Amino acid sequence: MVQAWFMMEGWSGDQREEHHKQPPEYVDLDTLYKLSLVEYFKVNELDPLNDKILTSIKNERGYTYEDEITVCKERLLNYESKLKSFFEEHLHTDEEIRLVLEGSGYFDVRDINDKWIRIKVVPGDLLIIPKGIYHRFTLDTNNFIRAKRFFVGEPIWTPYNRPADNMDCRKEYLSLITSC
Ligand SMILES: CSCCC(=O)/C(O)=C/O
Ligand SMILES: [Fe+2]
Predict the structure, then answer these.
(1) Separation between Cα atoms, residue 93 and residue 22, nearest integer Å
(2) Neighbours of 65 (CB within 10 A)
(3) Which CATH architecture has domain 3-169?
(4) Is the ipTM of this complex over 0.85?
(5) Is 135 annotated as contributing to ligand binding?
(6) What is the pLDDT of residues 62-86, one digit of tens each?
(7) Which residue, 41, 84, 120, 139, is the most exposed by fewest CB within 10 angstroms?
(8) Domain locations in the chain?
């Protein structure tokens, strides 16, 4: 079961640690969706690419593009600067869809109350981060993740760092989440 929790406010130190509140406050999947519109699906981690859930999500949502990203020192070009930009609070004009194949990491998303929720992802976790939500990504202390990326049409990975409140996708996201 995927784990998600509210992060401690004002944490310091290594971004790759868990940074729980004291006591920890976990977030279940329904609450995660209500507070952020982030969607989660479990795919068979032993054979993720042939999983029926994945096939139906790809068909229903019309993902026409897919590739793989490996985040680790040895395999990612400009590793340090990429890690830094992944961890800048940002949004995208399209959904960010990731299926973890190997390794692990944390996606942090800002909820409707502007609180950080940290989502730990491991093999078989498929996360759909809606367009217009502020979020960031970090490796955990294992320093390795390999994930599949999906997209509808030509991929656009451009991050828009906060503040990006005047962007249409941000306004649409806020109107969607406040009407749920
Ligand atoms: C495990 S995917 C790397 C992070 C990423 O691609 C991204 O866009 C983070 O916001
Ligand atoms: Fe992103």
Answers:
(1) 35
(2) 11
(3) Sandwich (2.60)
(4) yes
(5) yes
(6) 999 999 999 999 999 999 999 999 9
(7) 84
(8) 3-169
Mean pLDDT of 97-126: 98
Q: Which atom of ligand 1 is nearest to the CA of 135?
A: 10
> Which three-class secondary structure state does DSSP give residue 90?
strand
What is the mean pLDDT of the segment spanning 2-19? 98
Sheet holding 145-151, edge to edge: 39-42, 125-129, 96-103, 145-151, 65-71
Pocket of ligand 1 (CB under 6 A): 69, 71, 86, 96, 98, 105, 135, 137, 145, 147
Token pair, residue 96, equals 């960010």
Ligand nearest to the CA of 150: 1
Task: Kindly provide the b/e burial profile for residues 26-42, where b requires at least 16 CB atoms within 10 angstroms of the residue's own CB.
Answer: ebebeebeebbbbbbbe
86 within 8 A of 147, measured Cβ to Cβ: no
Instruction: Please report where in the chains the tokens 């005047």 appear, as a residue.
Output: 166
Q: At 121, list the tokens.
A: 């992802």
